[in-house]
Amino acid sequence: MKFLKISKQLIFIVISTICFACTESTAPELNENEEENKEENKEENEEENEEGNKEENEEENEERNVTININKTYQVIESFSASDCWVPNYIGNHWTENEKEKIAQLLFSRKINNGVPEGIGLSGWRFNLGGGTADQGSASGIEDIARRAESFMDPTNGTLNWTKQGGQQYFLEKAKGYGCEQFVMFSNTPPVYLTQNGKGYSDQGAYSNLKVDCYDDFAAYITTVIQHFKTEKDINFSYISPVNEPQYNWASGQEGTGWQNSEIKKLAVELNSALVNTGLDTKILLAEAGAWSYLYEIDGDGNRKNVIANLFNNSSSTYVGDLSHVAPIICGHSYWTDGNWHTLVDTRTKVAAAAQSAGLKTYQTEWSMLGDHFSTSEYVGHNNATYMDIALYMSKVIHCDLTYANVSSWSFWTSMDVERWGHKNRFFLIRITPAGGDYGDITKSGTHFATKTLWALGNYSLFVKPGYQRVDMEIKDYSNKLFGSAYISPDKKILVGVYTNLSNNNYDVKAQLNDLEIESIQTYTTSQSSNLSAQDINNVKTSIIVKPQSIMTVIYNLK
What we know:
Layout: H1 2-24, H2 32-61, E1 66-76, E2 79-83, H3 88-94, H4 97-108, E3 112-113, E4 116-117, E5 124-128, H5 133-136, H6 166-177, E6 182-186, H7 215-232, E7 239-241, H8 261-278, E8 283-289, H9 307-312, E9 326-333, H10 341-357, E10 361-366, H11 387-403, E11 407-414, E12 416-417, E13 430-433, E14 447-450, H12 452-461, E15 469-475, E16 482-488, E17 494-501, E18 507-508, E19 511-512, E20 518-527, E21 530-537, E22 545-546, E23 550-558
Parallel strand pairs: 1-19, 2-5, 2-11, 5-6, 6-7, 7-8, 8-9, 9-10, 10-11, 12-13
Antiparallel strand pairs: 1-15, 3-4, 13-14, 15-16, 16-17, 17-23, 18-22, 20-21, 20-23
Helix pairs in contact: 3-6, 7-8, 11-12
């Protein structure tokens, strides 16, 4: 123990001596290898600093493909929607609860579980106020059972039965339960009890099938239905659209009737009065033109065309703009003006100009891939098209409606239907297959399938929510094969970009956002192999690649 104590003292003296010597020296002596290592480390640190400064400068000066300016704003988005024509009534009435619930979830759910969306979160839903042809059966003159619609008004005596349209009511209530915000009631035909020929289709040619002495009765019926849903179901219809595609004569095949502009005014006056008398705040939507061009063109039947000027120019004999319940909105359908990029842009630019001149917002209230007028240079044709080709074309139409027609609401036509006659997914979001197959009895519960049109619409509807405002986006290589649009949330915390790449090349959409600071980024991609597939972008300065033949939604969470 004594030896150990002496040893400790000796060690202490030696260490103290060494430390004292070190403090007296300006620098320790380094061997040759240590000197080289020091110099190398110094050079590496200098290079890293230079490289870091270089990267920062490059980041600041980099020319990017996309520039988004939230200070340049356009229309506020109110809804993305679809309708319950025609088969939802049969599905809701006859199919299993499990099938119905899953279909409703796909249409309306906004939940995203671990990056996987349950549905596309539609913010609007269009409810067809049916004419009663389903109640007439084969006597309706409409051969296809799935194209007949029920009515709350009995076809024989005019009494009301609120159990009718039960399947439609099922999906209407599901929409409300999932948080859908905008409900539009629309009519293709007056109830058959009120029509001139007692049918849901017309034989009046260019004129309305509504009995000339029943305009007030039709208006009273509409307001009674709206009041019923408000009182009994706590469902408020924001809008009632009383006429649909009035430019067409609507012979047998499905419900419909033509209307003269003067007849539309007559009905609007009666409906406005009925809404005022009942104290409802529902507004009237006009006039669901069969094509955008009917809203402004003056050639042909002027009594059914040039709708904006006829209905909303105060010098017109058919002016309705002074009616308190007529919304300052003009509605059109995107059919027939969607065959090529030039027509898409030109027609919608003219619509926007005419609407703006009249002080109107625009709604696109119905589209599916109807007709065979599509340019062979922009579309492979129905026979060769994949389900994704059709979805991509739909995205092109949506983009042009949003950015050239400046629509505040965009709606697909039929939310669900059977796939027949090789139509693929041109006419539905969800494919319905009855137990007996595509041509089987629609009342026999079967299966459903979420198609690419559903998920492609979801790239818009799930993320561009009511109240978001379109802002300016510039794309360096913008074309009919590469395009996009951007939207900012009301609180300026979320910026959404939706890009469509129809080319065969990757495209980097990392955006110049001026002074905006990004907290995080997520992307959702729909392509041949993915359905709103999610990805977190860990480095907000990294490239964001939109792959060929795909639609990508980019969510910028801002600081």
